[in-house]
Amino acid sequence: MVSSETWTAAAAWVAAGLTALVAGPDLWDRIHGAKIEVSPPRQVLLYRDGADENSIMWVALDTTILNRSRFPDTTESLVLRISGAPPGKEAVFRAESTVEPIFSTTDDDVVACPEMTRCIRKKQMTIGEERADGINISGGNALSLYISFPLSMGNCISETSACEAYADFNSASGILEPNPDLRFTVELSMAEDGRKYVTCALSNETRQAWAYIIKRTGENGWATGNCI
């Protein structure tokens, strides 16, 4: 005859098994946490901010950040690594903001600025800017955005000599313009899912027009190129 203690133990095991079966997907997600995927940039946006000798070059890259889990995650750091520059001038820059560019063929004054922290108006383009202290991605959500990096000494985290090469807009232009083989790599450090890397290598068409693109950025305040 089976004792009551044996029946009780068996019932407990069955209950535990059913609980694990029901909670399986959620338990698996909890063990593994957030699962972040970042798409490679499709476009690079260059724009000039500031006046005269105090102006600086900004590089913004569009990407989509997808959270495939049910648990949120957030960026702890965002940096841009420029490779392919002349020796001693490859550098790393912190992200300053996320931006929303609105391109237009009409007078800039009639283009409403996005409801963001700062509005930058250029000829045939308006940029809404928000500080990128941290990008939060809720579970099951995707964010498509431009992440923007000022190429300036104060925002550079490389060796001092490399950072000094990006003293102002003209200095940064002088490094970028003759180097169409540059690669722009965005490094995202996620609180839960570790580091992610995506790279923009310029398309053949953009490489051929690169000197003109840099010149246009200086003259008109902005220009775009395509990534591959």
Q: Care to describe what's here?
A:
It is a single chain. This protein has 228 residues and is of the alpha+beta class. Helix content is 25%, strand content 39%. The chain contains five helices and 13 strands. Strands 1, 2, 3, 6, 7, 8, 10 and 13 form an eight-stranded antiparallel sheet that branches. Strands 4, 5, 9, 11 and 12 form a five-stranded antiparallel sheet that branches. It is globular, with a radius of gyration of 24 Å. The model has no long low-confidence stretch (mean pLDDT 88).
What is this structure's SSE topology?
Elements (H helix, E strand, L loop, with lengths): L3 H29 L3 E3 L4 E7 L6 E12 L5 E11 L7 E4 L2 E7 L14 E5 L2 E7 L4 E2 L4 E10 L8 H5 L4 H8 L6 E8 L3 E8 L2 H5 L1 H11 L1 E5 L2
Antiparallel strand pairs: 1-3, 2-3, 2-13, 3-10, 4-5, 4-9, 4-11, 6-8, 6-10, 7-8, 11-12
Helix pairs in contact: 3-5
Number of DSSP-assigned strands: 13
pLDDT average, as an integer?
88
Largest sheet: 8 strands, antiparallel
Strand content: 35-45%
Q: How far is the N terminus from the C terminus?
A: 74 Å
Determine the fraction of residues in helical runs and give it as a percent range: 25-40%
**Protein structure class:** alpha+beta
Number of helical regions = 5
Overall form: globular
Which runs of at least 5 residues are low in confidence (pLDDT < 50)? Answer: none
H/E topology pattern: HEEEEEEEEEEHHEEHHE
